[in-house]
Structure formats: C-alpha cells, structure tokens
Amino acid sequence: MKTVFYMCLLLAGLHAFAYGQLTANHHNEHDPNEPNDHIHHSAEAAACLKLVPNNADFAFKFLNEVALEAPNKNIFFSPVSISAAFAMLAMGAKSVTKTQILEGLAFNLTEIQEQEIHEGFRNLMHMLSHPEGGVQLSMGNAIFLTEKMKPLKKFLDDVKPLYQVEVFATDFNSSIEAKKEINDYVEKKTQGKITNLVDEMDPQTIMLLASFVFFRGNWEKPFKPENTEEREFFVDAETTVKVPMMYQVGTFDLYFDKDLPCTVVRLHYSGSATVFLILPAKGKMKQLEQTLDKEKVKKWSDHLFRSKIQLYLPKFSVSGHYEITNILSKMGIVDVFTNQADLSGIAGVPELKVSKAFHKAALEVNERGSEAAEATSPKMMALTLAPVIEFNHPFLMLIFDRDTNSTLFIGKISNPTTTSTSEI
After folding, report:
1. pLDDT tens, 300-343?
2. Do 295 and 348 reside in the same domain of the chain?
3. Residue 192 CB: number of other CB atoms within 10 A?
4. Which of 115, 130, 172, 244 is 20 to 30 A away from residue 413, measured at CA?
C-alpha cells in the first residue's frame, strides 16, 4: 500500500482597491540617478519569460475546470502557487509520474528542458518575493515531514535553493501539536489572513507540503469611502442583491470586445501588479470561461485605450477552498494520486503518493489606499457626464505581475455578498 502525504496550497490576498490616473509610461519610467539592480532584475525576468506561455495555459485550463465543477459560484485561486508547488514536487518524481506532472502544468518537454523549468520558477519566486513599488507579495513553500522518513539529501539540496523551501520535522502522531505547528506557520506566513488551515490531522500522514502566497496592494489613488453607496448587483435572472458599490470618476484603460462580447477595464497598482476586470454581457459568462486564453488577454492588452468614465466596482471579500486532486487528474496529472505514483526521488522509497491536494485562497477588495495618494486625489466634478461602466453582474478578474508577466490570481465574482466558495 502506498504511503500518502497531503499537499496544502495556500494563498492570502488583501487588496486595498483604489485607482490613480497614470500616464502611459508611468510604470516604465526610471530616474537614472536612483540606484537599482535593474540589470540583475532584467536577467531574472528573461528567465521567467520562458515560463509565461505555459503558466498562462495552465491558469486558464484550471479556471475552465473549476468553473465546470462549481458553476455560478465565486471562484478565487492562485495559478502560480499551484504551478510552483507541483513543479517542485516533480523534482522528487520519476518516470511517468514526473512527465505527467510537468505536461499537466502545460509544459511541452520537447520545447523546454526540465532544468529550465525549475530555473524559471526560481527566478519567478525570487522576483515575486521582492516586488518593486507599493505591492507587498511573498511566496514560498514548506515541507512538514515525519521523523520516520528522512528525505534524500539530493532532493533537499535541489529544492531548497530553487523553491525557497523550509523543512520541518513533525510528529503527526501527536495530531494536536502537529495541527498547531502547521496552522501557526501558515498564519504567520500569510500575516494572519489564513487561520486554522488544518481542522483534522491524520496520524498516518508522513509529509505535508504547504505552498503560500501573500499579497497586499495599494493603488495610487484610492476610492473615497464617502462615495461608496448601496446599489443592486444582478446575480442571475432571478436573484438581485444589494452591495456596497465603490465609485470613482477618472481616466481608465478600456477595451470593448465585440466578439465575446465583454468590457475590459485595466487598473494598475502603484507597484508592478495589474488587474484586468472583465464584464461579459449578461448571459455570456460561460462562453467567457470556456474561451479565455492567453491570446485573448494579449488582444485586450494590445487594443486598450484611455477613456474618461464613471466606474462602479463592488466592495467585497471572497475566499476559495478547493480539493484539487480531481481537477488536476482531468488535466493529466493522474499517477501521483494513485498507487502508480513514483515519488522515490523524495525519500528513496517507492511507497509514496499524494492523497489529497488542497488550495485555499482569500481576497478583499475595498477603498483603502496609501495616505499620500489620498492627500492628492481631488474630486473631478467636471467628469460627471462621462459614460458609466458598472460591475453590477458576474465578472472575472485577472491579477498579473507586469515584471514577470505572471498570472498571480484569477477570480470570478458571481455574488459579492457570498464571502466563500463551496469546497470542490
């Protein structure tokens, strides 16, 4: 019988959602008198670029699978967190198990070498953990391993520098203590945003992998709380709810995709993060979920234009808790969850498989922003006749890191008054 371990993929995200007017080259300007390590930064970014198309393909395939299993529900997850965790796991896999994991992550192994994948993730995680500007983001992994099974020195020597892994010896037989150790670690790393991750601890567990991402972003110009008012959000043809709707008049990046159809609004954080808010025409959400891919996002990016509008955006909190074993199996990552698993590169023994893989995510969207931005945000009364774009029915949000072109988070807001998704 295969011995099992559990994977817990975690995300905590806290958004201070506000928007500032940006000139076209605002985020690309650099004062030559200011010291920086842009040469090293550029080299890391170049290494990350090799992963961009594959990580994007995985992200949108995962969205499609989640949407099929949880139709009409809120969705929120971090594709880069899932990809990094399973790429790390692949370092301990062999044979068909390794191939399935890497190909399931959308890598074509005839076009990219395995070492390039791991080097790319190393640079990606380093850059994401050292963001520029007003974005706070940290990313890492931890392995909690029973003292009965010693990991191979080669495995630890390989994964520690590449995936920023911390390794802890844990007594899973003392379930209360083990649960506290893991929960305390996760709570600390996510700055208190994810608590009590583990409700019950199986004393037969021999290894638990936790992958975490913490994100907090401020906008250069926050929404003013006094402009937030209760308005209607149309969940579906039969359901309407009241939500606190934030409001701002300003110049935004827009695109109207007539083919789908949908409206795209792009907002920038003060640092390197960017948000695409995608509002499909009513009744077109399923079509958007099924057809969204990297080519469509690139088309939007290439055709954005600046326009003065009145923007309404719900104030909400959302969390996602997914048991993703079934989803990943549908995407081709099969053997690692069965008795056919070959994870002998981790501890030198064949009797090891992944029993369950969890992903937990949380997001808050509100008006908060930096104090300096608040002090310089005059009210633009002259624009009150500008066109209105109101996110008052289900919409998607894509959060990217511009430096690495990475898809950090994907969310679907079907009902802003529902704070959590059902576990799938």
Report:
1. 999 999 999 999 999 888 777 788 889 999 999 999 988 899 99
2. no
3. 12
4. 130
Name the residue with tokens 């209760």. Answer: 230
Could you count the other beta carbons within 10 Å of the beta carbon of residue 367?
22
For 329, list phi and psi in degrees, rounded to 5.
-60, -40
Cβ proximity of 103 and 332 under 8 Å = yes
Residues 181 and 144 sit within 8 Å (Cβ to Cβ): yes
Q: Is residue 30 part of a domain?
A: no
Contacts of 388 (CB under 8 A, 6+ apart): 309, 310, 312
What whole-number distance in Å separates Cα of residue 244 and Cα of residue 237?
20
CATH of residue 241: 2.30.39.10
CA distance 260 to 292: 10
Separation of alpha carbons 21 and 30, rounded Å:
18
* Residues 287 and 182 reside in one and the same domain: no
What's 238's DSSP letter? S
Cβ distance 197 to 10 under 8 Å?
A: yes
| Domain match, 294 and 278 both | yes
Q: What is the pLDDT of residue 244?
A: 95
Model confidence, pTM: 0.84
Q: What is the residue range of 264's domain?
A: 225-314+369-408
On the CB side of 163, CA atoms within 13 Å amount to 31
Give the CA count within 13 Å in the CB-facing half-sphere of 42: 5
Residues of the chain with pLDDT under 70: 1-45, 130-135, 220-221, 270, 368-385, 419-424
Query: 59 and 78: one domain?
Result: yes
Of the residues 346, 364, 382, the one at which a domain ends: 364
Rounded alpha-carbon distances, angstroms, from residue 337 to 82, 91, 354, 377, 412: 15, 16, 5, 53, 28
What is the chain's length? 424
**Does 88 lie in the same domain as 195?**
yes
Which CATH number belongs to the domain containing residue 100 in this structure? 3.30.497.10
As for how many domains the chain has, the answer is: 2
